[in-house]
What we know:
The chain has helices at residues 9-20, 84-90, 376-381, 452-468, 495-502; strands at residues 23-29, 36-42, 45-50, 55-59, 65-69, 76-81, 114-120, 124-130, 134-140, 145-151, 154-159, 163-168, 174-179, 185-191, 194-199, 204-210, 228-234, 247-253, 256-264, 268-273, 279-283, 291-292, 296-298, 302-309, 314-321, 330-335, 342-347, 360-365, 368-373, 411-416, 428-429. By secondary structure, the chain is mostly beta strands.
Amino acid sequence: MYSFTEKTRKPKSRLRKAWKNKQFQVSVLEGHNDKICDVAIDRDWIVSASRDTSVKLWNASTGEEMRNLTGHSRAVTCVRLIDEPTSDCLRKCVKIDRGELACDLSRKSESREQLLITASSDCSIRLWLLPKGNLIKSFYNYSSVRSICFEAGIIFAGSDSGKITVYSVLTGTPIYERIICDEPITSLKCAGSRLVATTDFGQLFVWEIFDEKGEEKVRVTQHLKSFVLKQSLALAETDLFVDGRQMLSSCFIPWNKEMLFVGDDGVNLKLIDLRTGFFSKFPNHFCGRAGFTDVILVTQKLIFATALDADSGKGSINVRSLEDDAMFAYVATLTDPCLDRIVCADLDATSSEGGEGLLKFVTGGNQLLSWVEISAQENSSVKRPKSTTDTHPQVKTEVERENDDSESEMERIQVKSSYVAELTRAPVDSDVESESSDDEDGGAWFWTKKSTTQSTTSKNTGESAADEGSDDDDDSDVMTSSGSENELITEEDGAWRWWCSIL
Protein backbone atom coordinates (compact mmCIF):
# COMPACT_ATOMS: atom_id res chain seq x y z
CA MET A 1 0.00 0.00 0.00
CA TYR A 2 1.09 3.56 -0.63
CA SER A 3 1.90 5.89 2.20
CA PHE A 4 -0.44 8.85 1.88
CA THR A 5 0.71 10.73 5.01
CA GLU A 6 4.20 11.50 3.76
CA LYS A 7 4.97 15.22 3.79
CA THR A 8 5.04 16.35 0.18
CA ARG A 9 4.13 19.99 0.57
CA LYS A 10 6.92 21.54 -1.48
CA PRO A 11 6.21 19.40 -4.58
CA LYS A 12 2.49 20.06 -4.14
CA SER A 13 3.08 23.79 -3.91
CA ARG A 14 5.14 23.64 -7.10
CA LEU A 15 2.40 21.80 -8.97
CA ARG A 16 -0.36 24.06 -7.69
CA LYS A 17 1.57 27.19 -8.64
CA ALA A 18 2.10 25.77 -12.13
CA TRP A 19 -1.61 25.01 -12.50
CA LYS A 20 -2.69 28.30 -10.93
CA ASN A 21 -2.01 30.13 -14.19
CA LYS A 22 -3.19 27.45 -16.62
CA GLN A 23 -5.92 28.46 -19.02
CA PHE A 24 -7.97 26.28 -21.37
CA GLN A 25 -9.83 27.35 -24.46
CA VAL A 26 -13.09 25.41 -24.57
CA SER A 27 -14.93 25.13 -27.90
CA VAL A 28 -18.52 23.95 -28.29
CA LEU A 29 -18.93 21.53 -31.21
CA GLU A 30 -22.51 21.70 -32.44
CA GLY A 31 -24.19 19.12 -34.66
CA HIS A 32 -25.73 16.40 -32.51
CA ASN A 33 -29.43 16.50 -31.65
CA ASP A 34 -29.26 14.61 -28.37
CA LYS A 35 -26.99 13.72 -25.47
CA ILE A 36 -23.36 12.79 -26.14
CA CYS A 37 -22.76 9.23 -24.86
CA ASP A 38 -19.06 8.72 -25.63
CA VAL A 39 -16.08 10.49 -27.20
CA ALA A 40 -12.56 9.78 -28.46
CA ILE A 41 -9.66 12.00 -29.51
CA ASP A 42 -6.41 11.38 -31.36
CA ARG A 43 -4.34 14.42 -32.34
CA ASP A 44 -6.66 16.66 -34.41
CA TRP A 45 -9.46 14.10 -34.78
CA ILE A 46 -12.43 13.97 -32.42
CA VAL A 47 -15.08 11.24 -32.62
CA SER A 48 -18.41 11.60 -30.81
CA ALA A 49 -21.28 9.15 -30.30
CA SER A 50 -24.76 10.34 -29.48
CA ARG A 51 -28.17 9.17 -28.39
CA ASP A 52 -29.41 10.56 -31.72
CA THR A 53 -27.98 7.32 -33.32
CA SER A 54 -25.17 9.13 -35.17
CA VAL A 55 -21.38 9.12 -34.93
CA LYS A 56 -19.46 12.21 -36.05
CA LEU A 57 -15.84 12.87 -36.95
CA TRP A 58 -14.58 16.38 -36.20
CA ASN A 59 -11.51 18.45 -36.91
CA ALA A 60 -10.37 19.42 -33.43
CA SER A 61 -8.46 22.48 -34.67
CA THR A 62 -11.29 24.10 -36.63
CA GLY A 63 -14.39 22.48 -35.14
CA GLU A 64 -15.46 21.40 -38.60
CA GLU A 65 -17.60 18.28 -38.96
CA MET A 66 -15.63 16.02 -41.29
CA ARG A 67 -17.94 13.01 -41.49
CA ASN A 68 -21.32 11.83 -40.23
CA LEU A 69 -21.57 8.05 -39.79
CA THR A 70 -25.07 6.56 -39.83
CA GLY A 71 -26.33 3.01 -39.65
CA HIS A 72 -27.05 2.39 -35.97
CA SER A 73 -30.77 2.36 -35.23
CA ARG A 74 -30.58 3.27 -31.53
CA ALA A 75 -28.32 5.27 -29.21
CA VAL A 76 -24.60 4.85 -29.88
CA THR A 77 -23.13 4.15 -26.46
CA CYS A 78 -19.40 3.58 -27.11
CA VAL A 79 -16.63 4.62 -29.49
CA ARG A 80 -12.97 3.54 -29.58
CA LEU A 81 -10.58 5.19 -32.03
CA ILE A 82 -7.73 2.76 -32.75
CA ASP A 83 -4.34 4.46 -33.06
CA GLU A 84 -2.76 4.66 -36.51
CA PRO A 85 0.06 2.08 -36.05
CA THR A 86 -2.38 -0.53 -34.71
CA SER A 87 -4.85 0.29 -37.50
CA ASP A 88 -2.15 -0.20 -40.14
CA CYS A 89 -1.34 -3.59 -38.64
CA LEU A 90 -4.95 -4.82 -38.32
CA ARG A 91 -6.19 -3.67 -41.74
CA LYS A 92 -3.85 -6.13 -43.43
CA CYS A 93 -5.64 -9.06 -41.76
CA VAL A 94 -9.25 -7.93 -41.28
CA LYS A 95 -11.83 -9.74 -43.36
CA ILE A 96 -14.43 -7.43 -44.89
CA ASP A 97 -18.05 -8.53 -44.63
CA ARG A 98 -19.54 -9.18 -48.06
CA GLY A 99 -22.78 -7.50 -47.11
CA GLU A 100 -21.08 -4.27 -46.08
CA LEU A 101 -19.80 -1.44 -48.22
CA ALA A 102 -16.66 -2.75 -49.84
CA CYS A 103 -13.42 -0.84 -49.56
CA ASP A 104 -9.86 -1.75 -50.38
CA LEU A 105 -7.90 -2.20 -47.16
CA SER A 106 -4.74 -3.35 -48.88
CA ARG A 107 -3.62 0.19 -49.55
CA LYS A 108 -4.30 3.67 -48.20
CA SER A 109 -6.36 6.13 -50.20
CA GLU A 110 -5.67 8.89 -47.66
CA SER A 111 -2.44 9.93 -45.97
CA ARG A 112 -4.01 9.14 -42.60
CA GLU A 113 -6.51 6.35 -42.04
CA GLN A 114 -7.62 4.79 -38.76
CA LEU A 115 -10.07 2.13 -37.63
CA LEU A 116 -13.01 3.07 -35.42
CA ILE A 117 -15.16 0.79 -33.24
CA THR A 118 -18.71 1.82 -32.34
CA ALA A 119 -21.27 0.03 -30.17
CA SER A 120 -24.96 0.71 -29.71
CA SER A 121 -28.15 -0.10 -27.87
CA ASP A 122 -29.30 -1.71 -31.13
CA CYS A 123 -27.19 -4.76 -30.12
CA SER A 124 -24.56 -4.16 -32.80
CA ILE A 125 -20.84 -3.40 -32.83
CA ARG A 126 -19.40 -1.88 -35.99
CA LEU A 127 -15.92 -1.41 -37.42
CA TRP A 128 -15.31 1.64 -39.63
CA LEU A 129 -12.46 3.10 -41.66
CA LEU A 130 -11.85 6.82 -41.16
CA PRO A 131 -11.86 9.46 -42.52
CA LYS A 132 -14.09 8.24 -45.37
CA GLY A 133 -16.40 6.37 -43.04
CA ASN A 134 -16.45 3.03 -44.84
CA LEU A 135 -18.23 0.29 -42.91
CA ILE A 136 -15.92 -2.73 -42.77
CA LYS A 137 -17.56 -5.18 -40.41
CA SER A 138 -20.59 -5.57 -38.18
CA PHE A 139 -20.98 -7.79 -35.09
CA TYR A 140 -24.38 -8.74 -33.65
CA ASN A 141 -24.29 -8.91 -29.83
CA TYR A 142 -27.86 -10.15 -29.00
CA SER A 143 -28.21 -7.52 -26.26
CA SER A 144 -27.67 -3.78 -25.86
CA VAL A 145 -24.00 -2.83 -25.51
CA ARG A 146 -23.24 -0.60 -22.50
CA SER A 147 -19.42 -0.64 -22.46
CA ILE A 148 -16.51 -1.88 -24.56
CA CYS A 149 -12.78 -2.32 -24.20
CA PHE A 150 -10.31 -2.78 -27.06
CA GLU A 151 -6.99 -4.51 -26.48
CA ALA A 152 -4.59 -5.74 -29.20
CA GLY A 153 -7.20 -6.73 -31.79
CA ILE A 154 -9.74 -8.06 -29.27
CA ILE A 155 -13.05 -6.39 -28.36
CA PHE A 156 -14.58 -6.94 -24.91
CA ALA A 157 -18.26 -5.93 -24.88
CA GLY A 158 -20.36 -5.48 -21.73
CA SER A 159 -24.13 -5.55 -22.11
CA ASP A 160 -27.13 -4.19 -20.23
CA SER A 161 -28.02 -7.78 -19.30
CA GLY A 162 -24.74 -8.38 -17.43
CA LYS A 163 -23.08 -10.45 -20.14
CA ILE A 164 -19.49 -10.13 -21.40
CA THR A 165 -18.84 -11.14 -25.01
CA VAL A 166 -15.38 -11.17 -26.54
CA TYR A 167 -14.84 -10.72 -30.30
CA SER A 168 -11.85 -11.03 -32.59
CA VAL A 169 -11.55 -8.00 -34.87
CA LEU A 170 -9.80 -10.14 -37.49
CA THR A 171 -12.55 -12.74 -37.91
CA GLY A 172 -15.56 -10.94 -36.50
CA THR A 173 -16.57 -14.01 -34.51
CA PRO A 174 -17.18 -14.30 -30.75
CA ILE A 175 -14.44 -16.24 -28.98
CA TYR A 176 -15.80 -16.07 -25.42
CA GLU A 177 -18.98 -15.15 -23.57
CA ARG A 178 -20.06 -15.19 -19.96
CA ILE A 179 -22.92 -13.85 -17.84
CA ILE A 180 -21.41 -12.27 -14.73
CA CYS A 181 -24.43 -10.56 -13.14
CA ASP A 182 -27.97 -9.33 -13.72
CA GLU A 183 -27.08 -5.63 -13.92
CA PRO A 184 -25.62 -3.47 -16.72
CA ILE A 185 -21.83 -3.58 -17.04
CA THR A 186 -20.74 0.05 -16.77
CA SER A 187 -17.02 -0.30 -17.58
CA LEU A 188 -14.50 -2.85 -18.83
CA LYS A 189 -10.71 -2.55 -18.58
CA CYS A 190 -8.08 -4.99 -19.82
CA ALA A 191 -4.36 -4.86 -19.05
CA GLY A 192 -2.07 -7.69 -20.10
CA SER A 193 -3.64 -10.85 -18.67
CA ARG A 194 -6.16 -9.12 -16.39
CA LEU A 195 -9.77 -8.09 -17.03
CA VAL A 196 -11.81 -5.81 -14.75
CA ALA A 197 -15.55 -5.08 -14.90
CA THR A 198 -17.79 -2.75 -12.87
CA THR A 199 -21.57 -2.85 -12.70
CA ASP A 200 -24.53 -0.59 -12.12
CA PHE A 201 -25.17 -1.93 -8.60
CA GLY A 202 -21.77 -1.63 -6.98
CA GLN A 203 -20.14 -4.88 -8.03
CA LEU A 204 -16.53 -5.12 -9.20
CA PHE A 205 -15.01 -8.27 -10.71
CA VAL A 206 -11.36 -9.04 -11.47
CA TRP A 207 -10.31 -12.01 -13.60
CA GLU A 208 -7.02 -13.47 -14.73
CA ILE A 209 -6.91 -14.64 -18.36
CA PHE A 210 -5.64 -18.21 -18.78
CA ASP A 211 -5.14 -20.48 -21.76
CA GLU A 212 -7.91 -22.87 -22.80
CA LYS A 213 -6.67 -25.54 -20.38
CA GLY A 214 -6.54 -23.06 -17.51
CA GLU A 215 -2.88 -23.77 -16.78
CA GLU A 216 -0.96 -20.65 -17.81
CA LYS A 217 -1.76 -16.96 -17.89
CA VAL A 218 -1.91 -15.48 -21.38
CA ARG A 219 -1.70 -11.90 -22.59
CA VAL A 220 -4.33 -10.56 -24.94
CA THR A 221 -3.09 -10.45 -28.55
CA GLN A 222 -4.82 -10.23 -31.91
CA HIS A 223 -4.21 -13.95 -32.47
CA LEU A 224 -5.95 -15.03 -29.26
CA LYS A 225 -8.55 -17.64 -30.24
CA SER A 226 -9.69 -19.17 -26.97
CA PHE A 227 -9.18 -18.63 -23.25
CA VAL A 228 -10.81 -19.00 -19.85
CA LEU A 229 -11.32 -16.47 -17.06
CA LYS A 230 -10.43 -17.24 -13.47
CA GLN A 231 -11.91 -14.85 -10.93
CA SER A 232 -9.38 -13.35 -8.53
CA LEU A 233 -11.60 -10.75 -6.83
CA ALA A 234 -15.32 -10.10 -6.43
CA LEU A 235 -16.17 -7.04 -4.36
CA ALA A 236 -19.57 -8.48 -3.42
CA GLU A 237 -17.76 -11.21 -1.46
CA THR A 238 -15.93 -8.68 0.73
CA ASP A 239 -17.01 -6.46 3.62
CA LEU A 240 -16.42 -3.37 1.46
CA PHE A 241 -19.36 -4.06 -0.85
CA VAL A 242 -22.18 -1.49 -0.68
CA ASP A 243 -25.34 -2.81 -2.29
CA GLY A 244 -26.90 -0.35 -4.72
CA ARG A 245 -23.86 1.88 -5.11
CA GLN A 246 -23.57 2.71 -8.80
CA MET A 247 -20.04 2.18 -10.11
CA LEU A 248 -19.55 4.39 -13.16
CA SER A 249 -15.91 4.30 -14.27
CA SER A 250 -12.54 2.63 -13.77
CA CYS A 251 -8.96 3.24 -14.86
CA PHE A 252 -5.58 1.54 -14.25
CA ILE A 253 -2.52 3.45 -13.09
CA PRO A 254 -0.29 3.37 -16.22
CA TRP A 255 2.82 2.04 -14.49
CA ASN A 256 1.12 -0.25 -11.96
CA LYS A 257 -1.65 -2.52 -13.22
CA GLU A 258 -2.25 -3.76 -9.68
CA MET A 259 -3.86 -0.42 -8.78
CA LEU A 260 -7.24 0.62 -10.17
CA PHE A 261 -9.12 3.90 -9.77
CA VAL A 262 -12.90 3.56 -9.49
CA GLY A 263 -15.54 6.27 -9.74
CA ASP A 264 -19.08 5.90 -8.36
CA ASP A 265 -22.01 7.88 -7.00
CA GLY A 266 -20.19 8.75 -3.78
CA VAL A 267 -18.19 11.85 -2.89
CA ASN A 268 -14.79 10.14 -3.06
CA LEU A 269 -12.50 8.87 -5.77
CA LYS A 270 -11.52 5.29 -4.89
CA LEU A 271 -8.19 3.54 -5.40
CA ILE A 272 -8.30 -0.25 -5.07
CA ASP A 273 -5.40 -2.63 -4.69
CA LEU A 274 -6.44 -5.57 -6.89
CA ARG A 275 -4.22 -7.98 -4.97
CA THR A 276 -5.90 -7.40 -1.63
CA GLY A 277 -9.19 -5.66 -2.46
CA PHE A 278 -8.38 -2.80 -0.07
CA PHE A 279 -9.69 0.68 -0.88
CA SER A 280 -8.21 4.10 -0.27
CA LYS A 281 -10.27 7.23 -0.87
CA PHE A 282 -9.58 10.74 -2.12
CA PRO A 283 -12.06 13.63 -1.89
CA ASN A 284 -13.64 14.41 -5.25
CA HIS A 285 -16.69 16.41 -4.07
CA PHE A 286 -17.62 18.63 -1.15
CA CYS A 287 -18.02 16.70 2.09
CA GLY A 288 -21.60 15.78 2.93
CA ARG A 289 -22.94 16.28 -0.62
CA ALA A 290 -24.04 13.77 -3.20
CA GLY A 291 -21.77 13.46 -6.20
CA PHE A 292 -20.97 11.40 -9.29
CA THR A 293 -17.55 10.51 -10.73
CA ASP A 294 -18.42 9.51 -14.29
CA VAL A 295 -14.98 9.55 -15.91
CA ILE A 296 -11.38 8.95 -14.81
CA LEU A 297 -8.46 9.68 -17.15
CA VAL A 298 -4.76 9.28 -16.42
CA THR A 299 -1.46 10.31 -17.96
CA GLN A 300 2.00 9.38 -16.72
CA LYS A 301 1.91 12.28 -14.24
CA LEU A 302 -1.71 13.35 -13.76
CA ILE A 303 -5.17 12.05 -12.85
CA PHE A 304 -8.30 13.74 -14.21
CA ALA A 305 -11.56 12.85 -12.44
CA THR A 306 -14.87 14.41 -13.40
CA ALA A 307 -17.26 15.48 -10.65
CA LEU A 308 -20.91 16.45 -10.43
CA ASP A 309 -22.30 18.24 -7.41
CA ALA A 310 -25.83 16.84 -7.27
CA ASP A 311 -26.98 19.73 -5.07
CA SER A 312 -26.07 22.46 -7.54
CA GLY A 313 -25.95 20.48 -10.79
CA LYS A 314 -22.50 21.91 -11.59
CA GLY A 315 -19.82 19.81 -13.23
CA SER A 316 -16.05 20.03 -12.88
CA ILE A 317 -12.78 18.20 -13.51
CA ASN A 318 -10.42 17.64 -10.58
CA VAL A 319 -6.71 17.17 -11.22
CA ARG A 320 -4.39 15.10 -9.01
CA SER A 321 -0.71 14.26 -9.26
CA LEU A 322 0.92 10.94 -10.12
CA GLU A 323 4.45 12.23 -9.61
CA ASP A 324 6.62 10.28 -7.16
CA ASP A 325 7.17 13.20 -4.78
CA ALA A 326 3.50 14.27 -4.73
CA MET A 327 1.62 11.03 -5.28
CA PHE A 328 -2.19 11.50 -5.48
CA ALA A 329 -1.98 15.09 -4.19
CA TYR A 330 -4.79 17.41 -5.22
CA VAL A 331 -3.58 20.01 -7.76
CA ALA A 332 -6.43 22.01 -9.31
CA THR A 333 -10.04 22.07 -10.51
CA LEU A 334 -11.38 23.00 -13.95
CA THR A 335 -14.93 24.29 -13.93
CA ASP A 336 -17.23 26.94 -15.33
CA PRO A 337 -20.66 28.29 -14.29
CA CYS A 338 -22.24 26.87 -17.44
CA LEU A 339 -20.58 23.43 -17.18
CA ASP A 340 -22.99 20.64 -16.24
CA ARG A 341 -22.53 16.89 -15.91
CA ILE A 342 -19.68 15.33 -17.90
CA VAL A 343 -20.65 11.73 -18.73
CA CYS A 344 -17.75 10.90 -21.07
CA ALA A 345 -14.27 12.23 -21.82
CA ASP A 346 -11.04 11.30 -23.55
CA LEU A 347 -7.51 12.67 -23.45
CA ASP A 348 -5.18 13.03 -26.42
CA ALA A 349 -2.35 10.64 -25.63
CA THR A 350 0.11 12.44 -27.93
CA SER A 351 -0.35 15.72 -26.05
CA SER A 352 0.37 14.15 -22.65
CA GLU A 353 3.26 11.79 -23.38
CA GLY A 354 5.85 12.12 -20.66
CA GLY A 355 3.74 14.81 -19.02
CA GLU A 356 5.04 17.43 -21.44
CA GLY A 357 3.29 19.55 -24.05
CA LEU A 358 -0.08 21.29 -24.07
CA LEU A 359 -3.02 19.20 -22.91
CA LYS A 360 -5.93 18.45 -25.25
CA PHE A 361 -9.06 16.57 -24.31
CA VAL A 362 -12.73 16.31 -25.19
CA THR A 363 -15.79 15.96 -22.95
CA GLY A 364 -19.39 15.04 -23.63
CA GLY A 365 -22.77 15.26 -21.95
CA ASN A 366 -25.44 17.75 -22.90
CA GLN A 367 -22.69 19.48 -24.90
CA LEU A 368 -19.67 18.31 -26.88
CA LEU A 369 -16.67 20.36 -25.71
CA SER A 370 -13.09 20.47 -26.99
CA TRP A 371 -10.51 21.60 -24.40
CA VAL A 372 -7.10 22.95 -25.48
CA GLU A 373 -4.53 24.30 -23.06
CA ILE A 374 -3.42 27.85 -23.85
CA SER A 375 0.34 28.26 -24.04
CA ALA A 376 2.13 30.52 -21.55
CA GLN A 377 2.89 33.05 -24.29
CA GLU A 378 -0.76 33.29 -25.36
CA ASN A 379 -1.88 33.33 -21.76
CA SER A 380 0.32 36.30 -20.85
CA SER A 381 -0.77 38.26 -23.93
CA VAL A 382 -4.47 38.20 -22.99
CA LYS A 383 -5.65 40.90 -20.59
CA ARG A 384 -8.29 39.73 -18.14
CA PRO A 385 -10.40 41.93 -15.89
CA LYS A 386 -10.22 41.34 -12.15
CA SER A 387 -13.36 39.90 -10.65
CA THR A 388 -14.89 41.92 -7.82
CA THR A 389 -18.06 39.88 -7.31
CA ASP A 390 -16.61 36.45 -6.49
CA THR A 391 -18.09 35.47 -3.15
CA HIS A 392 -17.07 31.78 -3.37
CA PRO A 393 -13.27 31.50 -3.01
CA GLN A 394 -13.43 27.71 -3.38
CA VAL A 395 -14.34 28.04 -7.08
CA LYS A 396 -12.19 30.71 -8.73
CA THR A 397 -12.95 30.75 -12.44
CA GLU A 398 -12.77 33.43 -15.12
CA VAL A 399 -14.88 33.12 -18.27
CA GLU A 400 -14.37 35.25 -21.37
CA ARG A 401 -16.36 34.83 -24.53
CA GLU A 402 -14.56 35.57 -27.80
CA ASN A 403 -15.77 38.78 -29.45
CA ASP A 404 -14.55 38.08 -32.96
CA ASP A 405 -16.16 35.07 -34.67
CA SER A 406 -14.52 35.73 -38.04
CA GLU A 407 -11.95 32.99 -37.64
CA SER A 408 -14.37 30.32 -36.41
CA GLU A 409 -18.10 29.91 -35.91
CA MET A 410 -17.58 27.83 -32.78
CA GLU A 411 -18.69 29.23 -29.46
CA ARG A 412 -15.55 29.58 -27.34
CA ILE A 413 -14.96 30.26 -23.68
CA GLN A 414 -11.78 30.42 -21.63
CA VAL A 415 -11.60 28.48 -18.37
CA LYS A 416 -8.98 29.19 -15.71
CA SER A 417 -7.99 26.43 -13.30
CA SER A 418 -9.08 27.01 -9.71
CA TYR A 419 -8.11 25.75 -6.26
CA VAL A 420 -10.71 24.10 -4.01
CA ALA A 421 -9.41 23.82 -0.44
CA GLU A 422 -12.09 21.27 0.47
CA LEU A 423 -10.47 18.71 -1.85
CA THR A 424 -7.13 18.82 -0.01
CA ARG A 425 -8.43 16.75 2.91
CA ALA A 426 -6.20 13.81 3.70
CA PRO A 427 -7.46 10.53 2.18
CA VAL A 428 -9.37 8.08 4.33
CA ASP A 429 -8.16 4.47 4.35
CA SER A 430 -11.42 2.53 4.09
CA ASP A 431 -10.03 -0.98 4.58
CA VAL A 432 -12.14 -1.07 7.74
CA GLU A 433 -15.38 0.92 7.73
CA SER A 434 -16.51 2.43 11.01
CA GLU A 435 -19.00 4.98 12.25
CA SER A 436 -16.21 7.45 12.90
CA SER A 437 -14.64 7.25 9.43
CA ASP A 438 -14.88 10.37 7.30
CA ASP A 439 -16.54 8.41 4.54
CA GLU A 440 -19.72 8.58 2.55
CA ASP A 441 -20.33 4.84 2.93
CA GLY A 442 -21.06 5.25 6.62
CA GLY A 443 -24.72 5.91 5.87
CA ALA A 444 -27.14 6.82 3.15
CA TRP A 445 -25.17 8.57 0.44
CA PHE A 446 -27.36 11.63 0.27
CA TRP A 447 -27.38 12.56 3.96
CA THR A 448 -23.93 11.68 5.27
CA LYS A 449 -23.46 13.29 8.66
CA LYS A 450 -20.80 15.83 9.53
CA SER A 451 -20.14 17.21 12.99
CA THR A 452 -20.32 20.82 14.02
CA THR A 453 -16.62 20.63 14.89
CA GLN A 454 -15.86 19.39 11.42
CA SER A 455 -17.88 22.18 9.82
CA THR A 456 -16.00 24.82 11.81
CA THR A 457 -12.61 23.25 11.11
CA SER A 458 -13.33 22.84 7.39
CA LYS A 459 -14.58 26.41 7.17
CA ASN A 460 -11.46 27.80 8.82
CA THR A 461 -9.28 25.58 6.68
CA GLY A 462 -11.03 26.72 3.50
CA GLU A 463 -10.75 30.40 4.46
CA SER A 464 -7.06 30.03 5.24
CA ALA A 465 -6.35 28.24 1.97
CA ALA A 466 -8.40 30.75 0.02
CA ASP A 467 -6.51 33.68 1.56
CA GLU A 468 -3.13 32.17 0.87
CA GLY A 469 -4.00 30.70 -2.54
CA SER A 470 -1.92 27.76 -3.72
CA ASP A 471 1.38 29.30 -2.64
CA ASP A 472 1.35 27.61 0.77
CA ASP A 473 0.20 24.15 1.82
CA ASP A 474 0.25 24.63 5.60
CA ASP A 475 -3.49 23.82 5.87
CA SER A 476 -3.79 21.55 2.86
CA ASP A 477 -3.83 18.14 4.50
CA VAL A 478 -5.95 18.69 7.60
CA MET A 479 -7.92 15.60 8.59
CA THR A 480 -11.28 16.15 10.27
CA SER A 481 -13.53 13.73 12.09
CA SER A 482 -17.26 13.16 11.87
CA GLY A 483 -18.00 11.24 15.02
CA SER A 484 -20.45 13.63 16.67
CA GLU A 485 -24.11 12.68 16.60
CA ASN A 486 -25.31 16.15 17.57
CA GLU A 487 -25.57 17.82 14.22
CA LEU A 488 -27.27 21.04 13.19
CA ILE A 489 -28.31 20.86 9.54
CA THR A 490 -29.40 24.06 7.80
CA GLU A 491 -30.61 24.88 4.32
CA GLU A 492 -27.05 25.91 3.47
CA ASP A 493 -26.07 22.24 3.68
CA GLY A 494 -28.27 21.48 0.67
CA ALA A 495 -32.04 21.44 0.30
CA TRP A 496 -32.24 17.66 0.14
CA ARG A 497 -30.16 17.07 3.30
CA TRP A 498 -32.09 19.79 5.12
CA TRP A 499 -35.42 18.26 4.14
CA CYS A 500 -34.25 14.77 5.15
CA SER A 501 -33.19 16.12 8.54
CA ILE A 502 -36.73 17.41 9.07
CA LEU A 503 -38.18 14.04 8.14
